[in-house]
Amino acid sequence: MAKAVSSISAKLLRSAFTANRFTTAYAQSSTSQSSSAGMADIVKPMETSMKKKLAEAFKPSVLQIVNESYMHNVPKGSETHFKVVIVSDAFEGVQLVQRHRKVNNVLEEEFGSGLHALSIVAKTPIQWEKSTQEVGQSPPCRGGAGL
Amino acid sequence: MKGTPDQPRCGFSNAVVQILRFHGVENFDSVNVLEDEDVRQGIKEYTEWPTIPQIFMNGEFLGGCDIMMDMHKNGELIEELKKAGIRSALLEKAENKD
């Protein structure tokens, strides 16, 4: 009897450990590669919404959304500061400031509901090909004064 | 910007100040939006731009930190400064090298 109980306990412990590991790793992931749409909505609603809207609006060949909130004076798990790398034909012939305006406009709702800072890299496919395709981190926080 | 040129309160605002100084531009006006919430919201409505810092040169809105960095890297900032009657310090450094 004791042996049966201990083997069940071991199984439960193992499965609990695996579930926690998955959840923790998922929550810490800074790129938008969710394995389950449902989980993404709950864990990263801002990032999920941004990804959906930018994908629909620009049909990008490259879309990277990096949550940089951890670099700033905000609570852990915040979705306030992001970097977006977006490569799309939609930027052909469009000046840089206008590209940023287009991205800002698509994310108007997000800016009104908690999105505080957005660093944007917006290139055409040819510009992206010619570039190093490496994107550095944004400048470090200087303390801010709350949001 | 957030904070002042001597004490920026935001990494993006600081980056803009550093870029300007790199070009030898020390005399520029700045407004600390953290001191006035009306200004902080008002400027976003005026420019229809949702983030701070916001850079104006010769009365024209240029963009935010990313755009300043881009313009600095590709030489456009030197041209914009020229339009505002400012000679970038980088031109002198380049001349001294030759």
UniProtKB/TrEMBL annotation, chain A:
Pfam families named among the record's database cross-references: BolA (PF01722)
Example of a GO cellular component annotation carried by this entry: iron-sulfur cluster assembly complex
Domain of life: Eukaryota
UniProt family annotation: Belongs to the BolA/IbaG family.
Name of protein: BolA-like protein 1
